[in-house]
Amino acid sequence: MIARLTAADFGQATAAVAPFALALAVGALVLAATGHEPAAVYRLMLDEAFGGERRIAATLTETTPLLLTGLAAAIAFRAGVFNVGAEGCFYLGGIVAAVIGYSLPSWPGVALIPLALVAASVVGSAWLVAPGLLRARLGVDEVVTTLMLNFIAIDLTSWLVDGPLLARGSANSATQQIVAAAELPRLLPPTTLHLGFLISLILALAYGAWSRFCAGGFESRLVGLNPRFSRAVGIDLERVVLRTMVASGAVGGLAGGIHTLGLVHRFVAGFSPGYGFTGVAIALLARNSALGVVIAAVLFGALSSAGANIQLFSNVPIEIVEILQGAVMIFAVARLTFRWPPARSAA
Amino acid sequence: MINLFLHAALLTTTPILLAAIGGFVNRMGGLVNLGLESMMTAGALVAVEVSASTGSAFLATLAAGSAGAAVGLLMSLVITRLRANEIIVGLGFTVAVAGLARFILKSAYGVSGTYDPAGVVMLPRLAIPSLDRVPVLGALSGLDPLTWLAWALVPAVAFALARTRWGLRLRATGAAEATVRSVGLQPLAIRDGSTIFAGALSGLAGAHLSIGIVGLFNEGITGGRGFIALAAFYFGRTSIVRTALGALLFGVFDAAQIRLQGRGVPAEIVQTLPYVIVILVLTGLGFADRRAMRGNVLR
């Protein structure tokens, strides 16, 4: 029994690690083809991501938004709702938190921060009500609608920071700085690691507990695994889909809000370098498990924090990170049918 | 004035139309292609490189089509053979190829963002002097061959899908894979073929952007047109004519947005229109489907 369990666990672990390993192999090919030494580059990246307290803090800072967008995607995918709209929610949550963060200068932080974060979540959920309803009531493909809503949100926010919300005297498209009271406290000054990291860890823990111990979590898994069966046993599919969408949007919006209050301290055009899409890769890689999301988010966080540094200290362009991220997304959904021990029969 | 605007609108339509035709055919074969953007990027970069090094716009176009086709084949194999989710793989290709293009710019050419080699030969413009002074039709003078090709493909593809053996097989692969297999054909190979076609056309679309319009490669050169093409073939559903009209509509928006800049209409808002239209179209189709279902007792 124990042996079988560990074999299954091992198989699962291989399934989760394989996409990452394959992506690193693709990256190595690209590096080698362009005259870099893959092993040396990866060693440098590893060192830049985890070598010493300061670097680990930088990695965890990069992990924070990814952990949240990964959770947003996992919540949805678990229920079979292919929501790829976290990117849009991230932008909207970010801009809402920024506006609240600078327009109430007399408020104390204990009131201002929760207000901004709650508002960011509410806007995120509201943004996904329409695709949720469309999917639940009319069966409209949520992948396309949420993808389109991403582009709309990005355009909308960049219009807002170019015109109505543009900070006076600012040359680039950005809002004003939020007031100091609205900034999330730093955990390890002088590093940029902020309270948002703890919030996202707590949320991951809550997600894990909910999905394992709560009726709602069981319901959502059942709907994801077998919608027809779920309907037959009396689960209200429409309600689960809509609830899932709203929850996923709330986490996506919160992610943007935390990114504003914790790190950027204002909203700028091009606010997210694709955190929402990386979140999709993270959730896929993690097979929607809470622990998996945390681990995958740290890996991707390490990638992007190392990417910025290797560009500084070697001549390897930072885009190697994007290549790796895209490759992980691709391999994460491919059925690689690695079996351990390998199946003996020809079939 | 009207000629100038229509001319500009036709030119902005071309890349969207090419990619949309590819995506449409791909979808008829049963694969929703979210990687059109990546194939466009590959085509745009290869076109500039080959055009500058060989001095031939024709070779550059050919190379761009092949590059797009190669990316398409790779993506198709991952989806059909490794049974991966097409949406995620498409997004993954979009992310990875965009990164790869920028990586190559920095690593191989030592430039950041824009690659502008000397000696890029642009696509020729076909002047039709007799039309130049005719209102509306004058817009047809001075278009590049890819624009003509794109529009010629609309009836050609419509005919091929409806009247040829290949068209029937492709449609069958999209609609009833098991049936195709049962008559001894290979649906996955047919589907791969349709993705290669989509990749080739998207590669041409990229070439049109880089050596048809601006004469250089820029990291944001595709500007989401692969996704607007997706919008066009979602809009067209099972009709290539409607797909082409959708592409034209978005091309007109694109041209209008450039003209409306500086006249108080924010470009960002105009840019959202294709995406809003897709959601509205899907909503409308959803309502229509539900009405059709009402008659069905089993529901």
Short note summarizing the structure:
The complex is a heterodimer of chains A (347) and B (299). Chain A has 347 residues and is mainly α.
Structure description:
Chain A is mainly α and 347 residues long. Chain A has one domain: ABC transporter involved in vitamin B12 uptake, BtuC (Orthogonal Bundle), CATH 1.10.3470. Helix content of chain A is 73%, strand content 0%. Chain A has helices at 2-33, 38-50, 53-78, 86-103, 109-138, 142-162, 195-213, 215-225, 227-232, 237-264, 275-285, 290-313, 320-333. In chain A, helix 4 packs antiparallel against helix 5, helix 4 (86-103) packs parallel to helix 6 and helix 12 (290-313) packs antiparallel against helix 13 (320-333). Chain A is globular and about 60 Å long. Chain A starts with a helix and ends in a 14-residue tail after the last helix. The model of chain A is unreliable at 342-347 (pLDDT under 50). By secondary structure, chain B is mainly α. Chain B has one domain: Orthogonal Bundle (ABC transporter involved in vitamin B12 uptake, BtuC). Chain B has eleven helices and two strands; from the N terminus they run ααααβααααβααα. Chain B has helices at residues 2-28, 36-54, 57-81, 86-108, 145-163, 165-175, 177-182, 187-214, 225-236, 240-260, 267-294, and strands at 114-115, 217-218. In chain B, strands 1-2 form a two-stranded antiparallel sheet. In chain B, helix 2 (36-54) packs across helix 8 (187-214) and helix 9 crosses helix 10 (240-260). The longest helix of chain B has 28 residues, at 187-214. Chain B starts with a helix and ends in a 5-residue tail after the last helix. The chains are: A mainly alpha (347), B mainly alpha (299). At the A-B interface, helix 5, helix 6, helix 11 and helix 13 of A face helix 4, helix 9 and helix 11 of B.
